[in-house]
Amino acid sequence: MSLQELMRQRQEKLARWRALGVEPYAYRYEPTHHAADILAWGDQVTAEPGRRVRLAGRIVALRGHGKAGFAHLLDGSGKVQLYFRADRLAAQFERYELLDVGDWIGVEGPVFRTRTGEITVRVEDLELLARSLRPLPEKWHGLRDPETRFRQRYVDLFMNLGVRETFRRRARLVTGLRRFLDERGYLEVETPVLQPLYGGAFARPFVTRHNALDTDLYLRISNELYLKRLIVGGLERVYEFSRDFRNEGMDRSHNPEFTLLEYYQAFADVHDMMALTEGLVASAVEAAAGVRALDYQGQRLDFAPPWARISMLDAVGAAVGEDVSDLDAAKLARLARSRGIETRPGTGAGGLLDALFGELVQPGLVKPTFVVDHPAETSPLARASRDRPDVVERFELFAAGMELANAFSEQNDPEAQRRAFEQQMARRAGGDEEAQMMDHDYVRALEYGMPPTGGVGIGVDRLAMLVTDSRSIREVILFPQLRPEEGIAEPEDEAEREAGAPAPGGAEPGTSSA
């Protein structure tokens, strides 16, 4: 049967509901319990009807037996069986006969255990809360097509129950991060999403137009420069969970809209922030997953401090079999060419070293690892190392081959920062669209004086990938960016995988098994 015909039948039933005097889209319903509460009673539930409950949820399976029938109801906690009998429901049994898989209902009745041992609610009162006009996807085993899953996350969440746990775990992760910083005196703040200048990272922005101001604005690529303005203003410890936007490609670890946690602390340097970050991430992973050591895509990740620390210069040197600590651009370009690593014309020694690192070293960084000794060229917002001027006080955190965090001893010398911005502008003039902009107001803020400061940015989505064992960033973003649909199809035009949809646990009423 076509999807169009199934939806036509459901529309006819909608009219029959209204003919019974039932409004098929209720205003409210007050349940007393959730499915998980009832199932947790375990051996307390006997074959004799016991405690009365009120439940609300979606029907995910129906099975009829003449004057009796079973269903499975799915709510926010799980799934429980329902039992309907004509002699118990009386006139309401006609309502049961009009139900379809996907409908939202409220039920009331006593809990008992069937002959097969399944904890069940014997329904003695039935209310329709919302009619489902569209049949559910084919198999209870889940909506499988990734494009459909991400585009129709509202279906994915009730067809693939593990997806719910993914986002609950992500929420626990964010709560753990926030709690750790709050307990250490950090103040959560908000900074602009629309910015007159973009900065704080190497990326192309999204541009929009503000009609009243008659000016272009940019969706932020980072909130770094605004948070450091707050340090200038005397807020000594600040953090923000920010939605950032970068006009770049999409792959398993990149989405153009993503969540970044940035936190800044006055009177600290990169070494202080390294120790803080170890504790923060380990604590948040434990809050999310219950443990500090977990498996990700078959790899064991242990976030218990201390973590490994390696030099980018030493790691690249070991990978290529040559000493690269002199940051010789000609040598690094030769090494990159010999390994088929493409770089932009005019890329300097820092960019070449970073490209070699990304290809030869980063994929092998499985356990949590701090990488230090970054070239000054690729770090215009960081202070120079106290040991050598051509590298900076910076770390990047890697795990499972992904960058998770980036941190600096923040540049607080306004003249040094101005020179770094000027060098970035020269790169822009040479065609580098991702080079950073000159931000005169930020330099002005530094001229008022910013104390020594350490700062860190953590990719929340990537960390969520690790604690949920999700291979793609799209698995941990509720509504990831996708190509636009050509147009929402009419029922007769939709793919066969969504047509003739048997319900979760079975087919349309009368043929499914519960």
Number of domains: 3
Tell me the number of strands: 21
CATH homologous superfamily (4th level) name of the largest domain: Bira Bifunctional Protein, Domain 2
- Quickly give the structural class: alpha+beta
- Arithmetic mean pLDDT: 92
- Major sheet characteristics: 8 strands, mixed
- What is the end-to-end distance? 22 Å
Q: Please give the order of strands in the largest beta sheet.
A: 7-11-12-21-20-19-16-15
Helix % is: 25-40%
Q: Uncertain runs with pLDDT below 50, 5 residues or more?
A: 495-514
Instruction: Describe the global form.
Output: elongated
Oligomer: single chain
Portion in beta strands: 15-25%
Task: Please state the second-level CATH architecture of the largest domain.
Answer: 2-Layer Sandwich
Radius of gyration: 29 Å
Number of helices: 15
CATH topology of the largest domain: BirA Bifunctional Protein, domain 2
Task: Give a verbal description of the structure.
Mean pLDDT is 92; it is low at 495-514. The protein has helices at residues 3-19, 35-39, 86-89, 93-97, 146-151, 153-159, 161-183, 224-232, 270-289, 312-320, 329-338, 349-360, 414-429, 440-447, 460-468, and strands at residues 52-65, 68-74, 79-85, 104-113, 119-123, 125-130, 187-188, 194-195, 206-210, 215-219, 237-245, 257-266, 293-296, 299-302, 308-311, 369-372, 374-375, 391-392, 394-399, 402-409, 453-459. The strands form five sheets. An eight-stranded mixed beta sheet has the order 7-11-12-21-20-19-16-15, sandwiched between helices. The chain has a five-stranded mixed β-barrel with strand order 1-2-3-5-4. The chain has 15 helices and 21 strands. It folds into three domains: 3-135 and 484-498, Nucleic acid-binding proteins (OB fold (Dihydrolipoamide Acetyltransferase, E2P)); 159-250 and 257-307 and 367-476, Bira Bifunctional Protein, Domain 2 (BirA Bifunctional Protein, domain 2), CATH 3.30.930.10; 316-363, no CATH class. It is α+β, with helices and mostly antiparallel strands and 514 residues long.
